[in-house]
Write the structure tokens for this entry.
Amino acid sequence: MYPPKLGYVIAENLEEATDFLEKHEDAKALAGGHSLIPMLKLRIIRPSYLVDIRRISNLHFISPGSDEIRIGSLSTHYEISKANIPLLSETATKIADPQVRNMGTIGGVISQLDPSADYPASLIAMDAKVKVKGKTERTVSFKDFAKDMFTPDLNPGELVTEIIVPAFKDYKFSYQKLERKAGDYAIVGVAVLLKTDGESIKDVRIGLTAVNNTAVRATEAENMLKDTRISEEIIEKASAKVMDYANPVSDIRGSAEYKKKVTKVMAKRAILEALKR
Amino acid sequence: MKYSGRSIKRLYDDKFVTGRSSYVDDLQVSAMHAGFVRSPYAHAKIKSIDTSEALKSPGIVAVFTYKDFSPLLKRGIGIWETYEDPKQWKFVARKALADNKVRFVGEPVAIVIGSDKYSVRDAVDKVNVDYERLPSAVSMEDALKDKVIIHEELGTNVGFDSTFSGGDVEGSFKQADKIISVEITNNRLIPSPMEPRGIIASYESGTLNVWYSTQVPHAARSEFSKVLGIPSSKIRVIMPDVGGAFGSKVNIMPEDLSVVLSSIKLGRPVKWVATRSEEMLASEARHNTFKGEVAVKSDGTVLGIKGDLLVDLGSYLTYTAPLQPAIIPLMIPSAYRIRSASIRSRAIYTNTPPITMYRGASRPEATFIIERIMSTVADELKLDDVEVREKNLVKPDEVPYTNVFGLKYDSGDYISLLRSGVNKLGYYDMRKYAEEERKKGRKVGVGMAFYLEISGFGPWEYGEVRVDENGDVIVITGGTPHGQGTETAIAQLVSDALQVDISRIRIVWGDTEIVASSMGTYGSRTISAAGSAAQVAASQVLEKMKKVAARIMKVDVEEVEYREGEFINKKDERVKVSWDDVAKAGYTGTDPGIYAQVTLQGDVTFPYGVHVALVEVDDYGIVRVKEYKAYDDIGNVINPALAEGQIMGGTVQAVGQAIYEEAIINDDGGLAVTYADYFIPTPVEVPQITSFFAEKPHVSAYPVGSKGVGEAALIVGPAAIVRAIENAVNKPINKTPVRPEDLI
């Protein structure tokens, strides 16, 4: 890699990192580096400094509580995959390949907000909250945090410190990802959380990634399923409704028309898989 | 103990598996580093180039453009005249850097030389090129209109236009029961060797030394000599370990030439190793379409083929691109008895990265075309795939057989191979299984394809065997193995010829000052051509040693027999002398020295086989190739494990070509993919591979009797896999790669 000339700073603690990032607006925080490094290589970005935040140990934790689970932003995909978090752990197992899962962090993913990233489908379905720290600390919903593709709600000098998700006890779930070959980005990713009572669905949440600028929830499809008896017919109808929430663009991974079609099939598969658990 | 025919472990792999191999980038030469300023446009005039800012950049010693190099050039880079006829071509020999125009996105415009790669990369951004954009012709269809002319000197974008005809085509179409139309396309690929290309050039006191990631050191030396006007005797090209090539490193790049020219201008060593993005631009491959008609009888007999073949060249004619449009038509008849055909083959310049040869070069294209034709005929006439092929295959008593275009197939029994192959691979059982699975709702399919390919490619190859005074053996081969392991097979052949242990043999290649002459490794030819030359040299060395033994035993040479390390007096078997003693004596007395050099002539040869693929397509149109089976007659098999390795590697690339790899060029002429989305199969995508070789092979005329296997699976694989997908989804497909959206 032959990036543009840049400075490299190792931050010992969070305050040092945010102070530095605030003073140098064109500096970039380096965590796992799996989006940053390729962009440096291609010279798409030209940061003045890389601020290595990997040694900030108080961002590196996962703490399960009875109502919610707090995830430090430096948690790797591998660590999340092993943490038994409903939906999110399964999502983490499907990100890229083992090397990426060992290095990449959840804070990095949501600060980058690649439209094809896996976590956002689950985070939006879970009503996740994002804790952000700069001069002050604030907590925003993931939905508001993800303003647009590659556009997180982060001001200069702010870093994501924590992601908070409800515990979703007694929920069934599934994250289904369609990829052309092992380790690729999602063509479409569908996250489903379900609460059933016997044969009826009490609550359902459906999140979609890779088929819009940012992850979306298919709320009308959720409403169609909520408080209904489980039947093939209603699942079929709801899956078709999920497709209405997909506004994909044509690219190498498929035409827009193809991606819409498979969104429906993936949604159905995610719902059925969740019900099986 | 005989070595040939056995799976001897590869001799020189330790360094590769322990990370101790040395590629161009690993060589410790105190060289300046080079980087290239590249065109952002597909077609533009260069109005001016301002290098002043770059030259001020720290660590930069020089920036050269076309103007600096043109006085040093006798001519541009030519074509591979061993196999290609310049008279058939309209082309402008490509210079080291763009002259007054750029013709593709990524074309090198200036070379920046500096003390380290980082400074060079920064300075590349500081060279200001003032372009005036021109309308471009990115697709072959656009280029054919000749509204945008890519090389003004030529007056047209058609570089090659030749009609290959034989037999009574009109008559055959009149006799036909049915005429079937076909359109068949192979999209653009990127060969992607693990090691990108690289070069170090050092020019001192009139002598040029080049360390080069190449498959053809001697051809490169000859081309550098012609381009620079430096005699070949003063150029040395050394091929260090080469991390794969797949044909793409026969090509001589303008970047390579620019590095050489820079070293001459600066009088200092200069080095360039392509970045991965540069490697993706350096060699692209395939990209052709055939549109035609096929005249058939209702029993499936193919009477004639006529059609138009369009082959993309990219913006310049590379050293190896002329092969494809000239060989594809000749190979379209394959092993079938097609007695009339007329194919117009045109090669088109477009404002895209230049095309080079890639594993199979011309035979994958021809095989895909003819096998699509055979399968289409089967579908149209509701006949079985195997039956249609069997009906049309050349019969054993017709071989040697001259095809409709005059190509002479040397040996083979195509029908027997098809029958025993289909049987051995369990094709009909697999078809039945797929049908049963489809009844259960799964989209499983099985497809077969047959191929006959051309390999060996003459015209000669070099082999030298030296036995030293200790009896150890050095073999110098004109072959240039770069990952295939053919050096081990050559050692096996020489061990057998000399009846010495393989551990006493060392194989050397890839240096123009060690190897007297060489063609190289490409076209599945190394064991046939280089192996035979080494074997013949070994037998000559043995004759010399018999003479020495006769001298020692004081008998006539006719009375000496050599058996397993001992020279024996036939008249009195108690009198004998050992290999080692003869070797020692060979360096005393009159006529000392035990060497033999052989430049062995050879010709083309024609391996063939049948391959079968099993695929499953899911609800999303995503294909998995689950099983791949091969049955090949490749002549004598010297090392079955090496041969099987070639089938495996070819299969992986066939899976890539069939369903994953596509070098998409956007409307502005830019390569639209990186390795994030140019999908090369990973181990997860590799099917279970089974390979068999014919028990009674039909040998070639080469002394070792082999025919070649290096390209077979990539030649026939895409056709077999595409046929399997058709079987799974019951829908016609006539292109590679097949995308998921084509299937749902």
